[in-house]
Structures are given as C-alpha cells and as structure tokens.
Amino acid sequence: MTGSPAGYDFSEVLRWFGERVDRIILLFDAHKLDISDEFSDAIKAFRGQDDKIRVVLNKADQVDSQQLMRVYGALMWSLGKVINTPEVARVYLGSFWAKPLQNSENRRLFEAETQDLFRDIQSLPRNAALRKLNDLIKRARLAKDQLQHYDFSKFPSMKMKLIESVDKMLSHKIAGLMSMIRDEESKAPPPIVMGGAFEGSRDGPFGHGYGEGISAGEDGEDWIVGRDKHRYDEIFYTLMPVNGKISGVNAKKEMMNSRLPNTVLGKIWKLADCDHDGMLDDQEFALAQHLIKVKLEGYELPAELPAHLIPPGHRKDPTADTLYGHDDD
Hints:
Blueprint: H1 10-20, E1 24-29, H2 37-44, E2 53-58, H3 65-82, E3 90-93, H4 107-122, H5 128-147, H6 160-187, H7 229-236, E4 245-247, H8 248-255, H9 262-272, E5 279-281, H10 282-296, H11 320-323
Parallel strand pairs: 1-2, 2-3
Antiparallel strand pairs: 4-5
C-alpha cells in the first residue's frame, strides 16, 4: 500500500498487472475465509477486470460435505462485499496441493473442479488476441470519456476528422477485425498452456472419470456387467421370459422402478436392445440394469454403446462366448 515499507504503492502495482494479465486467481483456504483489509484493497485494485477473476477455494477436503456448503456460502457473502459486480465470480472447489485428501467423500467433485480450472487456464492463449483487442477498445473509450472533462480552450483546436476516424474505428473497423481474428484462430491449431501441472493432467489411469461410470471395465478382460448378472438374472426370470426373452411391456415395469425419466429409460432401452428386436434376453436385460445403475450414480450415458459393454452373446467375434465364459444354457 502507499507508504508501505516496500516504498511503492502496492495497489497500483496490482492494478498495472491486472490490466495486462489474462487471468486473475484469488486463493482462499476453506478454514480461513477472512478477507483482511490488505487483501480487500488488493481485490479492489482489480476493478474493471472482473471478467478475468476466478476464485479458488483450496483445502476443501478439510471439511465434510455439509460444512463445505456453509463455507461456500460464507465465501460468496464475503466476496459480495468486495467485488461489486452483477455476475458472481466462478469459484473452483478442491484440494490444490500434493497431500492426501482428509475427506475423500467429495473426490469426484474435486477432480471435476480441478479439470475445469485446468481447462480454463489452458484455453487462455486461444482468445489472447481478442482479449487484447477488447482491452484496446476499453482504453480508447475510457480516453474519450476522460477527455470530456478537460478544458479544451487550453488545448490546440481538435481535428474533428481524427475524432470521427476514432469513432468509425470503434463502431465498424474493430468489429471486422475481431471477425478476422476469429477466422484465423479457427483455422490454426488451438494453442494451450503446457508443462508443469498440466502435463498428464487428463490422460492415463488418473485422468478425470477414468474407470468410472460408462468407462468402468474398459481395460478389463471380463464383461463388467457380469459381476452383478446373478442379481439381474433373479429379476429377469420373475418377468416371465418367453423363449429366453422378455417383452418391452414386462421390461418397462421393472425399469420404471428406477424412477428415471421416460426419456432416459428410452435411451437405455435403445442401448441395451443390441439386436433391435424389441425384446431383451438375459444379457441385454443385465446391460439395461447396469446402465440404470450408472445413471443413478450421476454419470452420463453414451450416444453409442462402448465395445466393452456389448454383451458377449451379441459380439461379432464368435470366440467371445468362450472368452467371457458365456453359456447359452
């Protein structure tokens, strides 16, 4: 701050950097949400750069789910007193340090939030040119507004043609330039931030979503649905199969017990009815139950059935039945 031991105006330094950077990240700890006077002044130095601000709530694993809701609410209330904007700043929840999670109940949430933050940072170079152009427009309009408060009698007479040229640039030429930038960026390979924490943050067995939901069993030898098939078979044979298959009417009654919307159940039916005969055999029924379970656990359904979920009896490879231990009986 002004008069600080450092001998310079810290807020002014932050303002200078804020105008030139692409992203401003405010870091909070879940157990320490107080905004000190110094931190408040620092945030206020970023006024006018609100679209660049992101908030990180770190060490969110140190509280349980119920406490996390209270902490998040308290953080938003504190920020609302400092950041006076109609739009709420994006807040990322997680544990952004290399220590074991103290509470792992929100692991999936933390992983998703981490990847969202990484994607946000990695995408910055793609829109760098547009952001610089927007800053130029902002500065030009600010300069024009400030000039209205000066006594122009003390200045040399203005050249109206130059003023008109500036207005024409802001209203017409800039729009065309932005369109050209978008066209050039769409043709070029998208630049992304690389190195450091971004290396290997998505790929491999520790990537977000790997081995979960629809991806579960992707790299296994056995048909993952087979693990629970004995339970699904008990239900299947209570639905009075004919020639080894149950009708859509009987299957519907059981599938409706999940209380999923009809639109979701219709999608599950299409994915599970591998031979498109309007009926389900025991493997197709087991697959339908597995997809219901996946959806109820909060995962999305695929547009097409992945190869590892295709029932062994419906695979094109005739050796699949032997490989997966399928017995027609």
